[in-house]
Amino acid sequence: SLASTAITCFTRGLDLRKGTEDVLCPANCPLWQFYVFGDGVYASLSSVCGAAIHSGVITNAGGAVRVQTLPGQENYPAVNANGIQSQVLSRWASSFSVTAGTKNTALESVGRSVSTARPSTGKRPKKTLDKKAGNKDCKADIAFLIDGSYNIGQRRFNLQKNFVGKVAVMLGIGTEGPHVGVVQASEHPKIEFYLKNFTAAKEVLFAIKELGFRGGNSNTGKALKHTAQKFFSLENGARKGIPKIIVVFLDGWPSDDLEEAGIVAREFGVNVFIVSVAKPTTEELGMVQDIGFVDKAVCRSNGFFSYQMPTWFGTTKYVKPLVQKLCSHEQMLCSKTCYNSVNIGFLIDGSSSVGESNFRLVLEFVSNVAKAFEISDIGSKVAAVQFTYNQRTEFSFTDHVTKEKVLSAIRNIRYMSGGTATGDAISFTTRSVFGPVKDGPNKNFLIVLTDGQSYDDVRGPAAAAQKAGITVFSVGVAWAPLDDLKDMASEPRESHTFFTREFTGLEQMVPDIIRGICKDFLDSKQ
Questions:
Q1: What's the pLDDT band for 116 if we cut at 50, 70, 90?
Q2: Dmax over Cα atoms in the chain, in whole Å?
Q3: Which of 99, 137, 173, 283 is 20 to 30 A (C-alpha) from 343?
Q4: Closest residue by Cα to residue 163 from 171, 223, 225
Q5: Could you tell me where the Polar residues compositional bias lies (predicted)?
């Protein structure tokens, strides 16, 4: 008999290569995660194990299943069976049915690794494997924001779909290549499909073909904002460390304002491209509320992120240059944000004038600032040093690479109590905490927290820190002299110096410090 292939909960009919295949479903797949379309005959988009449970061939304890490929059909029905609600699909290119696999196949496959989702013949041609992986040199998670407004109309809407389809194919979509989704902009935005829904160009093409024209005003700003905020979550298939891109297709001009949406997209680390087609002619300009709409929305108005096509007819020659832009990883200037590309060092006064209970308030302040950032091995990093006459590195930038670990390390800092040598502490931190990361990709920030006069000079060490590329914020409480605070702070000093009489006042400063870091970050990138 045929050896069976161990598959995962998520393997779909279209992932299997043979006409008839014996597979082994794992146990305890989460039922609510199954995508199943049809009843008895399932669209090949369906999860194989989900279909097998739905049809009663196996239970959630898993088991052997024989999968038979069938031709595509229309109107796959939605039926609730065995704890799974299958969904309606109007048409799909291929189908499959499932029957119980034989016992000996199950036994044969026990010795085989469960992680392999591939037929085990070993004779699989190299090419299909690469095709499935896609173009590994193009790393991008892309939302095509298509125009579904009355501006474009049904006829050109279809030409737009053809163009997007050609771009999708040329991108080389695959498991390790680009992933794409589509959002339609009209009166209200509609997410048509997410990054996680398809990982092969063929499926994406089919999904694009199925899109219906919505009509309505061209509320592109509303759609862009919605897409930047909602589309790229990890649960919707966005991948860590891969550039997020929105390609906005605009026929004519938008009915609403794009400026706010552009700001939101940049804040979320999304690279916005605008493909404007049939841009407003001289006699139409009176109807356009903001002639500079393209520059307001794109990632940078340096020309790279805007793309023009005179018309939707004969656009094939525009496909390749657009794809080349979308695949140029190093040009995606908006992927780095103040939230994911900074190192923040906290220099915490542990002198005896602070006292245990106020020290806790200081740690709370540190936590609340740190919490705002995306801390990870490829993102932002946090370090903390406590000082009296001496300095103690509580944790360095490389000690903790998740937000949870950083926050728990902050909670565990023990109060030292002693004198105040702030200048020495700044020199120590510059050298031993920032030294190891000074050539790294992140922008460096130091937040000095103190409640009193320093016994040594702070001006020299602070100037040296700034010269080493560290932006310094000084936060003073109670008896901290304003001159010291100003001497430590980066230029412009007013916006980098903070003071409060009481330790309880630290809490109000948190948003301003975060905003200050983001402002400096953006200014350094312009």
A1: very low
A2: 85
A3: 137
A4: 171
A5: 110-119
Whether 509 and 475 have beta carbons less than 8 Å apart is answered as: yes
Paired tokens of 471 = 């932006």
Radius of gyration of the chain measured on its C-alpha atoms: 29
List the domains of the chain with CATH numbers.
Answer: 5-100 (2.170.130.20), 141-331 (3.40.50.410), 342-524 (3.40.50.410)
Instruction: Render pLDDT for 5-26 as a digit per residue (tens, 0 to 9).
Output: 888 887 888 888 788 888 889 8
Beta bridge partners of 484: none
Residue 162 to residues 63, 134, 166, 251, 370, Cα–Cα distance (Å): 42, 20, 6, 15, 46
d(CA 467, CA 280): 49
CA angle 22, 27, 29 (to 5 degrees): 100
For 491-504, b/e burial (b = at least 16 CB within 10 A) is: eeeeebbbbbeebe
| Contact criterion met (CB below 8 Å) for 85 and 70 | no
| 5 and 116 Cβ atoms separated by less than 8 Å | yes
Per the structure block, which two tokens stand in for 25? Answer: 């479903």
Sheet holding 190-193, edge to edge: 190-193, 179-185, 141-147, 244-251, 270-277, 306-309
Question: How many whole angstroms separate alpha carbon 314 and alpha carbon 305?
Answer: 22
User: pLDDT tens digits for 259-280?
Assistant: 999 988 988 899 999 999 998 8
Give the H or E element holding residue 473: strand 470-477
Q: Rounded CA gap, 231 and 246, in Å?
A: 10
Q: pTM score, two decimals?
A: 0.61
Give the integer Cα–Cα distance in Å for 385 and 124: 56
In this structure, the chain runs to a length of 526
- The CB-side HSE value for 201 (13 A sphere, CA atoms) comes to 19
| CA–CA gap between residue 157 and residue 146 (Å, rounded) | 9
The tokens for 401 are 């690479």
pLDDT digits (tens, 9 = 90+) for 336-367: 888 889 999 999 999 999 999 999 999 999 99
β pairing state of 497-500 and 470-477: parallel
Residue 109 has pLDDT above 90, yes or no: no
Tokens of 132: 């499935």
Which of 90-94, 122-126, 430-434, 475-479 has the lowest average pLDDT? 122-126
The residue with tokens 């499932």 is: 98
Q: What number of other Cβ atoms are within 10 A of residue 103's Cβ? A: 11
Work out the angle between the directed axes of helices 319-326 and 153-171 (0-180°, nearest 10).
60
SS3 61: coil
Give the pLDDT of residue 1: 47
- Residue 14 class from Cβ within 10 Å (0-12 exposed, 13-18 middle, 19+ buried)? buried
